[in-house]
Design goal:
Blueprint lengths: L9 H14 L9 H12 L4 H22 L9 H8 L8 H16 L1 H13 L3
Length: about 130
């Protein structure tokens, strides 16, 4: 049985993953049956909920940077979008200090995305 130190049981884990997914930016308002299947697979693989949360934050920041440089990305329609990132996180990406840094950046962008984008643009335009 997987060791989920922050989750008591399978039902809670699945509900937490689906809740994280539905509350993530650019995701649908309702989950699908396949989203529940993927959440169950993550549970069976022993992926901690903190890793899932981190992957959601990392994906959002990557998409956000892409949007700044390339234009708006299409909305995310399935938990499958995150699955590859979750499964392919490296040890260095899972370092607690890096995870804290990503959480900090995520909170800054989510608190006031417009101000954050303006700061990025200003720093890019500043003489070097």
């Amino acid at each position: 049985m997987p060791d989920h130190t922050s989750v008591v049981d399978r039902t809670s884990y699945l509900a937490d993953v689906i809740s994280l997914y539905l509350n993530a930016p650019d995701t649908p308002n309702d989950e699908s049956r396949s989203d529940w299947v993927i959440a169950s697979q993550l549970y069976s693989s022993g992926i901690p909920i903190k890793t899932v949360r981190f992957a959601f934050q990392l994906v959002f920041l990557r998409r956000h940077l892409h949007n700044l440089n390339e234009g708006i990305s299409a909305p995310i329609r399935s938990l499958a979008y995150y699955q590859a990132v979750i499964r392919n996180l490296t040890d260095s990406e899972l370092d607690p200090s890096y995870m804290a840094y990503i959480a900090y950046k995520y909170s800054k962008v989510c608190d006031d995305p417009t101000a954050y984008i303006q700061r990025i643009k200003e720093s890019a335009e500043a003489p070097g």
